[in-house]
Specification:
about 140 residues, two-stranded antiparallel sheet, 4 helices, globular
Length: about 140
């Protein structure tokens, strides 16, 4: 059985709701899933997973949340070469620049983006939840 991690940070609960939908989609596909808060995920955990979904809300001027997600992602970047990952997150303003920047960064790290990133403004609606489930199902 394939094992995946859904690693996320969430301030308002919107990205957490997305993470739950990603995990649900992965479970429906038959994957063994660990749902992990960003501050608890470390680089030594990366090899334990066949795929990893990272979730983060946009903060400030469309940047990754800087107290947990950014430090965590920086610490695992060196271990993402050839790893299947996917990115998701919510935003309250802007046009998704933070996600495009994050995607570029992951590609530069050598990660394999398993699915188009999923973003939604504020709380996920039914379409965003369905996209999150698809993202989770595509991790491996």
């Amino acid at each position: 059985m394939s094992k995946v991690a859904v690693v996320y940070g969430s301030g308002t609960g919107n990205t957490e709701a997305m993470a739950n939908a990603v995990a649900e989609g992965a479970k429906e596909k038959g994957y063994d899933v660990d749902l992990i808060q960003a501050g608890e995920f470390t680089s030594d955990m990366v090899p334990n997973y066949d795929g990893i979904a990272f979730g983060c809300p946009a903060m400030g001027a469309e940047e990754l949340e800087d107290s947990e997600v950014e430090p965590m992602f920086s610490s695992v970047e060196g271990d993402l070469k050839d790893k299947r990952i996917a990115l998701f997150g919510s935003y309250g303003w802007g046009d998704g620049e933070w996600m495009r920047t994050w995607e570029d960064r992951a590609k530069q790290d050598g990660a394999v983006l398993a699915h188009d990133s999923v973003i939604c403004q504020d709380a996920p609606d039914a379409d965003a939840e369905a996209s999150c489930k698809e993202l989770g199902a595509s991790l491996v």
